[in-house]
Design goal:
This protein is of the alpha/beta class and about 190 residues long. About 25% of the residues are buried. The longest helix is centred in the first third of the chain and has 20 residues. It is globular and about 60 Å long. The strands form four sheets. The protein has a three-stranded parallel β-sheet with strand order 4-3-5, sandwiched between helices. A two-stranded antiparallel ribbon has the order 1-2. A two-stranded antiparallel ribbon has the order 6-9. Helices cover about 35% and strands about 20% of the residues.
């Protein structure tokens, strides 16, 4: 049985990264012509209705990106792991390290300040889940045990262990907050190309 694919594109004047991907439907070639036409019209109407509802993909169901832009502050968690995140002995001292610099550059890119919370990975993951912080830095790797509980960026850097194992380094954001994740990943991609 042969199948035809119909692409339905929604017209929009929004930024390209907020446009929904093209809807794809599959029609059975043996269906009567009128049925195929009705299906095509139904798909077109469904795409138009979704667009009229203000659907933007990627989106943040909890509004992480929008909230941090309105707040003017990126709430970042830092889990000490040299050289990625280092913390001086003083409790009031801000963290430092390569991932701290990366998160601060991302905040500059967004035009917001950074408020750091220093703690262990498990507490920071819980804070992400509760919406108390927006991003975690701490030398996390792509095979993090927290991968089920958070959204990890694509690896932005690699390191090799003394045993020769290559590890991809990532940052973590709240799970499901796709606008936040994609904005951070675009920043990391652009930064890696410089």
């Amino acid at each position: 049985m042969r199948q035809n694919f119909v692409r339905v594109r929604q017209k929009s004047t929004g930024p390209p990264h907020l446009l929904p991907r093209a809807a794809v439907t599959c029609e059975d070639d043996t269906a009567p012509m009128g049925t195929r036409w009705v299906r095509g019209v139904a798909v077109g109407l469904a795409a138009a209705a979704l667009g009229a509802c203000g659907l933007a993909i990627p989106s943040d169901p909890d509004g992480t990106l929008t909230a941090l832009l309105e707040r003017g502050t990126l709430r970042a968690g830092a889990s000490p792991r040299t050289p990625w995140v280092e913390v001086a002995g003083e409790k009031e001292a801000p963290p430092s390290g390569s991932e701290v610099e990366l998160v601060e550059a991302f905040a500059d890119h967004l035009g917001v300040d950074v408020a750091w919370t220093v703690s262990g990975e498990s507490e920071l993951v819980e804070m992400l889940d509760l919406g108390q912080i927006d991003v975690v830095a701490g030398g996390l790797t792509a095979n993090s045990p927290y991968a089920e509980a958070v959204a990890l960026t694509r690896p932005y850097a690699e390191s090799t262990t003394p045993e020769g194992e290559v590890r991809g380094h990532v940052l973590a954001v709240p799970v499901g907050e796709n606008a936040m994740l994609s904005t951070l990943e675009r920043f990391l991609d652009d930064r890696g190309q410089q």
